[in-house]
Amino acid sequence: MTHPPKIVIGTTPGNYGLNYEDIELKTEDGLKLAGWYIPQVGSAIILVHGYPAEKADLLPLAKILSTNYSILLFDLRSFGKSDGKYTTLGKKELWDLDVALDWLKNKGYEKIGIFGFSLGGAVAIMKAADDPRIAAVAAYAPFADLKLLGYDAYKNLWLLKYPLVELLAFWSKLFFDYDIAALSPEKAAARLQIPIFLFHQKQDAQIPFEHALKLKDALSQNPRAEFDFRETGSHGDFPFDFGQTLLKFFKKSLK
Which terminus of the chain has fewer CB atoms gathered within 10 Å of its CB, N or C? Predict the structure, then answer.
């Protein structure tokens, strides 16, 4: 789980007809993250990929959103072309997103939106709850709670799933010095008051729909929360209209 295979898709924004710059972000713990900056007039949006993908996975969305916004894509630690020997499934990835926000702020952007897919969506929600630089957040199939996701992963082992997840929690505390139970987008979502758009498909086998329902309940006090739950579609199966739906949300939320 913490040592996913390196995937490098090989395409760049240039393959989509976009002008871009290769950039390098340096994290708090000294890692170098590979990124692309697609300049445009106005506000900016950061796109955060899922597990175990890389930034090029989101280029089709970048193409659509770049009609109105500057775009920053980067590889999370240990993914794509970034440094790092392992992923922490959200803990230190918050540091990765932090330096991306710093980079855009140094460019002069005042309004920044975040879109995250799966793991990237979970990181985006947790970061948005504590960082006033984020004006709006959108997430595709984020997990609500890492422990719950562990139970989902081991569901075929019936009662054994409980000690296995506890062992995972102990292992993460021992080697990474954090408790996986503390990585909870659900708890973070309950503190969000900025615009948020949550997308999930009920047939998703990787991040079960139960996670979306928990996040929706956590967002019940946020009048600017929007939801799009589809009956069909698997994890990563972007509907044909998803890019335009996302663009519409950010146009309304980043005014």
Answer: C
Cα separation, 22 vs 141, in Å, equals 28
Looking at the fold, whether 197 and 139 belong to one and the same domain comes out as yes
* Three-state SS at 135: strand
b/e code 47-74 from CB counts within 10 Å (16+ = b): bbbbbbbbbbbbbebbbbbbebbbbbbb
- The strand order across the sheet containing 44-48 reads 21-26, 32-38, 70-74, 44-48, 112-117, 134-140, 196-201, 225-230
167 and 124 co-located in one domain? no
How far is it, in rounded angstroms, from Cα 44 to Cα 26? 20
Angle (CA) 37-90-116 rounded to 5° is 45
Evaluate whether 175 touches 3 at the Cβ level (below 8 Å): no
Encoding tokens for residue 252? 């309304």
Calculate the alpha carbon distances from 149 to 39, 40, 43, 95, 170 in Å. Answer: 36, 37, 34, 22, 16
- Indicate if 125 and 78 belong to the same structural domain: yes
Cα gap 179→157, rounded to integer Å: 23
To the nearest whole percent, how much of the chain has pLDDT over 90? 75
pLDDT for 51 beyond 90: yes
Rounded to the nearest 10 degrees, the angle between the axes of helix 119-128 and helix 93-106 is 60
**171 in a domain, yes or no?**
yes
User: What residues are paired with 74 via a beta bridge?
Assistant: 35, 48
Stronger pLDDT, 21 or 6, i.e. the higher one: 21
Stated pTM of the model = 0.92
Between CA 128 and CA 135 the distance in angstroms is 8
